[in-house]
Amino acid sequence: MGCGAGKQCFSYYHALEGDADITGTDVSESLLAQAREENKKVNNAINFQQLDFNQPFDLPSDSFDLVSACFAIYYAQDIPFTLSEMHRVLKPGGRLMVSDLVLLRDLPADLKESIEAYVGCIAGALPITQYETGLGDAGFTDVTITRTITVGDAVHSAIIKATKPANG
Ligand SMILES: C[S@@+](CC[C@H](N)C(=O)[O-])C[C@H]1O[C@@H](n2cnc3c(N)ncnc32)[C@H](O)[C@@H]1O
């Protein structure tokens, strides 16, 4: 989700040697057009469709083994809603993997309002606690948040993993 021109979709496709049904989604029709162009090289094996984090997902419930979003979920305006939609479309036992910037504490107002920081993902980064509570409230278990690179004071990139319990 938030796949842009499809980079992660093609990585998954090649890593799994084509043995998976992959759907790539993004809000941007122009990036999806680029993804569809690249998709021709793999015989249109990947399904690309438009999806806005801020609207109900046009995807069936209980249908995916894995939902992933790399450096995109900070565009969600209502993170509990987006996480609950991600939970809905996962199969019981399915997994969520999100990479994003997370904040250990609030940003100063001037940085939050900076366009440059927004484009660089920092202004949209969520406090780590919003993930912890949001994932739990959405019904996810086995939540791990692994900090990877320190981007700046109190800002880290992180890999967030969670599971939809097998009993739903
Ligand atoms: C930094 S790019 C990351 C793209 C891709 N995941 C990658 O790593 O190359 C962020 C992506 O989020 C998408 N995006 C922005 N707002 C969105 C929204 N409301 N719903 C879904 N995707 C959105 C953008 O179009 C863009 O493709």
Write a concise keyword list for the protein shown above.
binds S-adenosylmethionine; two-stranded parallel ribbon; alpha/beta; 7 strands; 6 helices; five-stranded mixed β-sheet; 168 residues; 31% strand; single chain
Structure, described:
The chain has six helices and seven strands. Helix 3 crosses helix 6. With 168 residues, the chain is of the alpha/beta class. The chain is 30% helix and 31% strand. The two termini are 21 Å apart. The protein is globular, with a radius of gyration of 16 Å. The protein has helices at 7-15, 29-39, 79-89, 109-112, 115-119, 128-138, and strands at residues 23-26, 47-50, 64-70, 90-103, 126-127, 141-152, 155-163. Strands 3, 4, 5, 6 and 7 form a five-stranded mixed sheet that branches. The chain binds S-adenosylmethionine. S-adenosylmethionine is lined by residues 2-4, 7-8, 26-28, 31, 51-54, 70-72, 75.
